[in-house]
Amino acid sequence: xxxxxPTLYIVATMVAAMxxxxxxxxxxxxNIRALKWWGSAYLLGAASVGIWTVTSGTLDExxxxxxxxxxxxxxxxxxxxxxxxxxxKPNLPGxxxxxxxxxxxxxxxxxxxxxxxxxxxxxxxxFYAALTATELWTERRRPLQRRWPLIVVPVMHGFVLMxxxxxxxxxxxxxxxxxTSVWVTGFSVELVLYAIGTVFVxxxxxxxxxxxxxxxxxSTDPLTGMFNRRGFAEASSRLIDREAHAGRxxxxxxxxxxxxxxxxxxxxxxxxxxxxxxxxxxVINTLxxxxxSGRVGGExxxxxxxxxxxxxxxxxxxxxxxxxxxxxxxxxxxVDTTVSIGVAGGPAGxxxxxxxAAADTALYQAKRTGRNRVEAAEELPLSLENQRRKKxxxxxxxxxxxxKLA
Length: 406
Fold this sequence. Notes:
The chain is of the alpha+beta class. It folds into two domains: about 5-220, Up-down Bundle (Rhopdopsin 7-helix transmembrane proteins), CATH 1.20.1070; about 230-385, Reverse transcriptase/Diguanylate cyclase domain (Alpha-Beta Plaits, 2-Layer Sandwich), CATH 3.30.70.270. It has helices at about 5-30, 35-55, 60-85, 90-110, 115-140, 145-160, 165, 180-220, 230-245, 260-265, 270-285, 310-325, 350-370, 385-395; strands at about 250-255, 290-295, 300-305, 330, 335, 340-345, 375. The protein has a five-stranded mixed beta sheet, with helices on both faces. The longest helix has about 40 residues, at about 180-220. About 35% of the residues are buried. Mean pLDDT is about 80; it is low at about 140-145, about 165-170, about 175-180 and about 400-405. GO terms for molecular function: diguanylate cyclase activity. Its EC number is 2.7.7.65. This is diguanylate cyclase. It catalyses: 2 GTP = 3',3'-c-di-GMP + 2 diphosphate.
């Protein structure tokens, strides 16, 4: 069965234009800049290919070069869309570099060197496809086995575009059968598949971004930007498991801002919010990157450190001193702020609830003995319930008939 190549190009153009309009509309509704870039690129590319296909053979050399240049700009826009989506600035010189290179090459080459023009054009588009694949590759927010479509689609498109270069003389454009050859037909079909595949990739990215946003919203305190109680508990569980495998101890800290209700009553809730945000900044800047911290109550914060109790007390003292010296001023004057801190440490595998309970006891001791101080738990929590359950589960999975000698 033979397929009419111009018809396939028109179909590809219509599909690309429809998808471009959809992406542009969705981008405007959701205010996603990258989708606007992608949608505009599709519409621009569709217009270029459509006009070139319909008027093929009737355009003069200048207009033909201009249409091809517009198509290369559309390819550059697809690459820039992936940059914008991942929070990077558009590369405007790179956007037009392909078009400039094409015009320069076309004006330099003699008209009979049409195959060389095809080769250069394919190379430019393949280069933009490689840049897009690289941009997606470097964005490692998902495991590779789940991100493979994001890489495969532009790589396969670039490979198809490189076929004229790889096959060379097998695709002789001066051959009368070239326009109806299986290679040209396959390439036009690939354009349709690439247009659809790219939109599939785009919606994978958008869906992933939405999932991450909802997950962050569910685990983040909106005022301070730190973990909320749920997020802190989940992250701490992973940290405890990791340290337990390595046999290292962990230490929990509980912070309570002194006389916080009085601050709200005297200066207003806006000032109270500023104090909370200031304390969050102090904690984040004072603790290490490997330490976890979060807001677990109104004026109560917690942290989990992969270290010994002694090192945890030192870290708590740094936070206490930094906050006491930070100072905050409102319209009515300075606000004196201090924090009391309870610290509790335990051996590898100690449960978070046990650590927080012991640290909470130490915190109340700090409150009773004058506030603005650090107190360590007198007794280390010894509950290793999680590890006990794991060992019990492993014993239950042992095959019957096996006798363990004490």
